C-alpha cells in the first residue's frame, strides 16, 4: 500500500477539511501546513498535536511545496488565491485537492485545468455536495427513470448565516470572489448540471445588494477578522439583519441573486439565492415528463425527498413516495467531507475517478461568472463559453 504525505494551504476554517486525511493506520499523513497568519498556524499545530502528528509549519506555501516532497496538497485558502496556488503546486508535480470554486474567473479556471493537463498531475475539486446523501438519492431516482426525462430543475437557496459568513469578511468584495454565485452558488450550479447530465450554455439574471449594502461597516484598514473574532461573530442571535453592524469595509456583492440557465441538452433551470432569510436550506425541484421530485432539507433526521408520479389537481405536501435520509446531522455537510477526502486518497492511490470533476467545477464557475455579468448589465442573456476540446475530453483521473 502506497504511503501518502499531504500538506494544507490555508490551515483553518475549511482547512480543517484536510484533517480527515490524517489516517496513520491507513498510511496517510498530514505532514505540513502553510498559512500567512500566525494564530492560524498555531491553531493548526495544536490540532495536529492532538492527533499525535508532527507537522512542519510554513508562512509561505511555496517553501512548503518546494521542501516537503508532498504527494498532495489541500488548497483551502480564500477564492482569489486558488489560481496562483494551484498552478504553483501542479507545476511542482504535487497533486492538488482544490476547494471550490476552482477560481474567480473563467480564464483562471481554464489555466488551472491547462496546467494540470500539461504537467500530467492529479487535480480534484472540492465539490462535496456530489458526496451528500440527498443529492445522490435524487440522482438515483432520476437515473431510474421514475420521473421520466428531466426537463426542468429549480433550486431555491436560503442562507440565514449570509451576514456572518459572507458580509463580515473578504467575501463581501467582488474583487475577491467575483460574485456569491461562485463562492456559495458554485455548489448548486454544479449539482444542477450533475442532475441534468449537461452544462449551461446560456444564462441571464437579476439581483441586488438589497440589505447588507446599508448596514454599518468597519473602517478601511480593518478588513481582517482574526480566527477568534470570526468564531465570536457567528451567532443565530444576529437577527434581524438590519439591526447588525461591523461589516466589511467594502460591500459590493449582491445578497440576492436569481439566474436562469439554458442547458445544452434542452433542460431549463433556475437558481435563486438569498442571504438574509431566517432559515437555511437548499431546496431542489426536478420535473420530468412522468413526475416531480423535491427535497426537504439537506441532511439529518428531518431531511427527505418527496416524489410525485400520479396526477392530482391539488397541492400535496407529501409525495406518492417518500425517501428518508440517514446522513448524520453532527458531521460537516452531512458526512460528505470525510467522503470527499477519501475520494482524493483513492484517486492518488488507485486512480479511482472522483465524483467531482475539474470540467464540472469549471462549468459551475463559468455559469456563475456569466450570471453575475448578466445581473450587472441589466439582465442580458449571455453565452457561456465551452472548454477547448482537449480539456473537455481530458481524463484528469487517468492522466492521459
TrEMBL record:
<dbReference type="Pfam" id="PF01408">
    <property type="entry name" value="GFO_IDH_MocA"/>
</dbReference>
<feature type="domain" description="Gfo/Idh/MocA-like oxidoreductase C-terminal">
    <location>
        <begin position="139"/>
        <end position="379"/>
    </location>
</feature>
<dbReference type="InterPro" id="IPR000683">
    <property type="entry name" value="Gfo/Idh/MocA-like_OxRdtase_N"/>
</dbReference>
<dbReference type="Pfam" id="PF02894">
    <property type="entry name" value="GFO_IDH_MocA_C"/>
</dbReference>
<dbReference type="InterPro" id="IPR004104">
    <property type="entry name" value="Gfo/Idh/MocA-like_OxRdtase_C"/>
</dbReference>
<dbReference type="InterPro" id="IPR036291">
    <property type="entry name" value="NAD(P)-bd_dom_sf"/>
</dbReference>
<dbReference type="GO" id="GO:0000166">
    <property type="term" value="F:nucleotide binding"/>
</dbReference>
<protein>
    <submittedName>
        <fullName>Putative dehydrogenase</fullName>
    </submittedName>
</protein>
<dbReference type="InterPro" id="IPR051317">
    <property type="entry name" value="Gfo/Idh/MocA_oxidoreduct"/>
</dbReference>
<feature type="domain" description="Gfo/Idh/MocA-like oxidoreductase N-terminal">
    <location>
        <begin position="5"/>
        <end position="127"/>
    </location>
</feature>
Amino acid at each position: 500500500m502506497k504511503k501518502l504525505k499531504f500538506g494544507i494551504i490555508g490551515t483553518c476554517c475549511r482547512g480543517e477539511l484536510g484533517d480527515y486525511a490524517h489516517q496513520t493506520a491507513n498510511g496517510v499523513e498530514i505532514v505540513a501546513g502553510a498559512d500567512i497568519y500566525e494564530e492560524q498556524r498555531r491553531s493548526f499545530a495544536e490540532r495536529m498535536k492532538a492527533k499525535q502528528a508532527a507537522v512542519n509549519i510554513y508562512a509561505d506555501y511555496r517553501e512548503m511545496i518546494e521542501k516537503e516532497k508532498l504527494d498532495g496538497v489541500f488548497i483551502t485558502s480564500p477564492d482569489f488565491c486558488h489560481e496562483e496556488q494551484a498552478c504553483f503546486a501542479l507545476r511542482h508535480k504535487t497533486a492538488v485537492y482544490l476547494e471550490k470554486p476552482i477560481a474567480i474567473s473563467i480564464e483562471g479556471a481554464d489555466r488551472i485545468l491547462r496546467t494540470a493537463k500539461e504537467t500530467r498531475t492529479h487535480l480534484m475539486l472540492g465539490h462535496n455536495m456530489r458526496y451528500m446523501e440527498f443529492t445522490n438519492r435524487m440522482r438515483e431516482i432520476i437515473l431510474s427513470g421514475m420521473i421520466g426525462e428531466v426537463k426542468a430543475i429549480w433550486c431555491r437557496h436560503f442562507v440565514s448565516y449570509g451576514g456572518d459568513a459572507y458580509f463580515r469578511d473578504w467575501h463581501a468584495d467582488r474583487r475577491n470572489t467575483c460574485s456569491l454565485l461562485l463562492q456559495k452558488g458554485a455548489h448548486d450550479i454544479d449539482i444542477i448540471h450533475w442532475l441534468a447530465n449537461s452544462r449551461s450554455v446560456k444564462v441571464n439574471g437579476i439581483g441586488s445588494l438589497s440589505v447588507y449594502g446599508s448596514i454599518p461597516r468597519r473602517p478601511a484598514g480593518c478588513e481582517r477578522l482574526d480566527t477568534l473574532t470570526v468564531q465570536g461573530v457567528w451567532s443565530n442571535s444576529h437577527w434581524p439583519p438590519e439591526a447588525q453592524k461591523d461589516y466589511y469595509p467594502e460591500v459590493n456583492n449582491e445578497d440576492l441573486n436569481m439566474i436562469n440557465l439554458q442547458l445544452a441538452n434542452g433542460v431549463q433551470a433556475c437558481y435563486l439565492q438569498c442571504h438574509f432569510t431566517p432559515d437555511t436550506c437548499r431546496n431542489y425541484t426536478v420535473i420530468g415528463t412522468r413526475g416531480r421530485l423535491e427535497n426537504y432539507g439537506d441532511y439529518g433526521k428531518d431531511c427527505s425527498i418527496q416524489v410525485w408520479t400520479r396526477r392530482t389537481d391539488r397541492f400535496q405536501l407529501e409525495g406518492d413516495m417518500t425517501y428518508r435520509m440517514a446522513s448524520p446531522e453532527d458531521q460537516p455537510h452531512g458526512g460528505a467531507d470525510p467522503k470527499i477526502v477519501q475520494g482524493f486518497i483513492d484517486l492518488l492511490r488507485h486512480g479511482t475517478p472522483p465524483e467531482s470533476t475539474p470540467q464540472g467545477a469549471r462549468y459551475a464557475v463559468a455559469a456563475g461568472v456569466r450570471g453575475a455579468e448578466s445581473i450587472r448589465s441589466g439582465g442580458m442573456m449571455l453565452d457561456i463559453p465551452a472548454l477547448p476540446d482537449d480539456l473537455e475530453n481530458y481524463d484528469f483521473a487517468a492522466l492521459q
